[in-house]
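G., before I forget:
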Amino acid sequence: MNRPSRLKMAAIHAGLTLLCMATLYPVLWVVKMALSPTDGLALTANPFPETVTFEHFRQVLSGTDAAGRWVFGRQLMASIVVSGATTLVGLTLAVSAAYALSRFRFPGKEGGMQALLVTQMFPATLMMVPIYSILQKLHLLDSLSGLVLVYATTALPFCIWNLKGYFDTLPRELEEAAVMDGASTFQVFIRVVLPLARPALAVTALFSFMTAWNEFILAATLLNDPSRFTLPVALQRYVGEHKVEWGKFAAGALIVSAPVMALFFALQKHLVGGLTAGGVKG
Amino acid sequence: MSEVTLSGIKKSFGQNLIVKGVDLQVGEGEFLVMVGPSGCGKTTLLRLIAGLEQVDAGEVRIGGARVNDVAPRDRDVAMVFQSYALYPHMTVQENLAFGLTLRKFPAAEIASRVQEVAGMLELSHLLERKPKALSGGQRQRVAMGRAIVRRPKVFLFDEPLSNLDTALRVQMRGELARLHRRLGATMIYVTHDQVEAMTLATRVAVFNGGLLQQVGPPLDLYNRPANRFVAGFLGSPAMNFLEASRDGARFTGKGFTLPCPADVPAGHARVLLGLRPQDLRVAAQGPLAGTVDAVERLGFDGYAFVTTEAGPVAARFDKGVNVSVGDKVFLAPVADALHVFTEDGAAALRHPEQRASLDVSAEVAS
């Protein structure tokens, strides 16, 4: 391959640098707002804070409600419980459904797969009213279990498709070998298929967790009690009718995104493997 | 009691009838090799015996008991797959022990059996490795070990050597033969490689188009093929076929005349003659003539591929003979070499007397 000329390389690098700056600029602004002592939206072009203070972080983390309870702690717990339970419920259902769709032949299989895909075409807002009234009938409004139920069901189609795509790539002979070795269908699934599907499971789990962790609209609609708020809803409370507490909002946003970023870094290797090996290629 | 009996087996996938009614009996301790071109139904038949597929019609018996509706794990058969199908997430030790663990054998029994098999297959130093850290030959041995450790009634092999290079294949072929002698178990082995069929089998079953063509000891099939397909399938290079009509004591075809042996039954005016390349020599004079198309020299001897009026023909020549592409040559059959088939090749009418000096294994292996 020919090495591009110096001029061309310089132009490419300049272009990439510009692109990086454009991408990072808003993020830097959030960091600046979080670290600046003022609560306002300082409209200056400089993305770096002039003075640095962690006051906003302290206020977000240590806020208490009228009853003197530690609000952030409760909301963090709510988020963890909801996201964790969503992942657990969603993955358990998705993994068995995906395996069945990948390996068994039964009437309605193709139709079912299509139907799952179709559900993905509607925006979440469209489902809000029916979901609200269903949860009302089930007496699950303003409860975390209701939220888990909604998240798990909405995440299922993607999880199933993703896992099915991966199961399709596993050689059948492995399962047949296990059958010949004396394994029941369930044992084949537990002892051969699942261990091999670990990368795909990691990707799918992370996806479910992140969706639940970041989701705002449904949570804001279904939850009323601030002590049960998930973090995105809690964040929104800093944007008041008369006053926007930009500093706290930015600090909170950074705190909320930290665990997801940590998860990403921790699972990075699995993710790459899972993405290339799984059904979400290219 | 570990004989396998197939009667009237039929199997189709969708509209395709793959196995079209097969009757076959495999005796206890026998090494039966099922051989045929791809798509002939041999692998399907093996999977039907394993229970990985359900028969559409007919009956599978293992050890005398009908197993049509018995789950694979209750048939007491073990299978070695073409791709080995080792569990990638388990060590060699766990791979070997998996079947026994599932069957809830006591730990001590599992350990001793795994040790024994690992020793037998020279895997003892590899027990802690995962399959991806093994060479092709080692994986192959683990796959066999996984079958042996269970001590099943019947072993099934689905082209187990086809992914190995030539040298390893020859070595594993030897090991398989030794293994069969040592275990004395019933083994059914599928391959498309006629050398494996000839060297390993106590009996060979040749399949084509979903039907059993002939079954018998390898040399019987080689010497007395029941039809044109079997005759052409076993032996390398393949048997030459020449169309001819019978004219009293002679066969006449395009550009040749051959004497008709006395034992050819009367009443077949048109026939198909079969001549193994080993029985046809490049000579100074002979009943067939043609132009050399290609030459394969194998050292001691060689084969000339000759275009004659009657079609392409392969013939053997000895080391001293000078043959090159483009030469006009004569071909002469050795004494009593003629196989005679019906015109459509569906049945054999006559075979040469078996000669004691016929060195089949050397010829087939070449």
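The longest helix of chain A spans residues 71-103. Residues 276-282 of chain A have pLDDT under 50 and may be disordered.

More on Monday.
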